[in-house]
Amino acid sequence: MRYVVIGSSAAGINGIRELRRLDKDSQILLISSDKAIYSRCILHHYLGGERDLAKLCFAEQDFAERFGVEWMKGRTCIGLDREAKEVVLEDGERVSYDKLLIATGSHTYIPPVRNLKTAKNVCGFRNLEDIERLRQVARRAKNIVIMGAGLVGLDCVCGFLELGVKTTLVETAGWLLSRQLDERAARTYQKAFAAKGVAQYYGVGIDQAIVDGDGQITDVVLTSGKTLPCDYVVVTAGVRANVEFLEESKIKIGPMGLLYDETGQTSDPDVYGAGDVSGTSPIWPAAVKEGIVAAANMAGKPGRMTDFFASKATMNFLGIPSMSLGEVDPKDGTAQVEIRETEGPGPHTYKKIVHKDGKIIGAVLQGDLAYSGILQQLIARKIDITKVKKPVFDIDYSDFFHMDERFGYYY
Prior knowledge:
alpha/beta; 5-stranded parallel sheet; 9 helices
């Protein structure tokens, strides 16, 4: 058996570990455009100088040797020949496989803003090459505009702050982290970033980039009409799955990315997918588990991905921890919202729980995450909180976990 894995991030690396655990003898080949294994989740620490490349690595130092992997580094896939069962590389080389795992992740999406795609002083915040470039930019740029105030955008801001570089955030939504937080929780971060000198514009986008004769952006014009001086744009407004190389393969691709089922299997029974390449669940825990599940099925050990973690996000910016679960800003008028907030000389805390028909469907915790474990159990097990005679913020494990005569837990 010859396993080929494309992509050296969370899904691919954890897939390889599982393949070798289940199959001690078969050949495993890793193909990656990256020449190193690193976590994209903490690239801002590399930008800010808090970590070097070795500290970005989430794999064993001797990963390839330990797991018996042949690693083709710095190689890009440009096609897939399903009939021949071969991956086509940029230099024309073909690599054969018996089972293939596609874990190619995603790339920065440059929106169709006038002059943005052709300007020279624009990049994303997605890989090591981006960060190396931005480390140089930080030494000379005076007006850096970050397009997008999601998790990646705020990571970018924090990385520049570590270098003492102030930035400007531009976000089309009404507040930062609009997919994760409600407006109240977002406001806490917005105040904290403002105190650090970060300029912020919400509810507006970039209408056009003004460039000089050398193709360098000098200003950006917002949709509100306001013009901002700008000598560099970092785009963090979204990503797109790396599936372009599959276009001629006729493997099924959805509107977001590669399509695969709960086992990781695509429309081709010998080809599997995992991680950001699906375009549906771009978070680390999902990528890890998808990689493991896909690898298990490739090795003949049935397994399914039943929880996709898509509704959970944990963050800590400027020393303010937050977590969101499920639907935090419900549009359904039948849902009930309960809030507990503490102000005063001590740490500020904000807790919000959304429930409907006795079941918790969403929550936000900020400042104090101690209740997160209980909340996750209440949500995952769909426990009816109307049967617990306590305020929703005071429920503990003893209210829904019990022990039977054999010392087993039930709820």
